[in-house]
């Protein structure tokens, strides 16, 4: 976090590039505050939250994101987080959030708006899929046919086709090749 370098009261103990590295970095470094991006490769920040809070209940977690919460259908006040900061808000907001969080208070970026600015973004689209749709999407990406998916998930083939149609609609895909690119 380059923004924190001129502020010696905050020490960056680790910087990771993938959601898969977060738990090991927290275990190894025992930070007071974790600044977590939502859109990480591998496991995304939202998927990490429950495990982090369960394993490290005293850890303060600040979500840092380019997404307005409405973009990804998220109510930050209902999440197990201590702060939500927009990446484009600047260093002053980030520092204010850190100050409040370390004082035991919650902080929500004052620039958060309720409008959806990333409606056509693939990451925010995927968050709108149900767990069953995500499961079917992964099986499609793994090369399974509708019939194979129906057998694997104990669903009718018609149900799989319906889920597939809903996935394509939600993801804005015209055909299966378009869907698999997203």
Please provide the ordered H/E string of secondary-structure elements: HEHEEHEHHHHH
CATH superfamily of the largest domain: Response regulator
Helix content: 40-55%
Evaluate the radius of gyration: 19 Å
Terminal Cα span? 29 Å
Beta strands, count: 4
Structural class: alpha/beta
What kind of sheet is the major sheet?
4 strands, parallel
- When the domains are counted, the total is 2
Q: Beta-strand level of the residues, as a percent range?
A: 5-15%
Unreliable residue runs? 115-119
Q: Within the CATH hierarchy, at the fold level, what is the topology of the largest domain?
A: Rossmann fold
Give the overall average pLDDT.
85
CATH class of the largest domain: Alpha Beta
Globally, the shape reads: elongated
Spatial ordering of strands, largest sheet: 1-2-3-4
Question: What is the overall number of helices?
Answer: 8
- CATH architecture classification name of the largest domain: 3-Layer(aba) Sandwich
Furnish the topology, listing elements before pairings:
Elements: H1 22-29, E1 33-37, H2 45-55, E2 60-65, E3 83-86, H3 91-102, E4 107-108, H4 122-126, H5 131-141, H6 146-153, H7 157-171, H8 176-181
Parallel strand pairs: 1-2, 2-3, 3-4
Summed up, what is this model?
By secondary structure, the chain is α/β, with parallel strands linked by helices. The protein folds into two domains: 2-108, Response regulator (Rossmann fold); 129-181, Winged helix-like DNA-binding domain superfamily/Winged helix DNA-binding domain (Arc Repressor Mutant, subunit A), CATH 1.10.10.
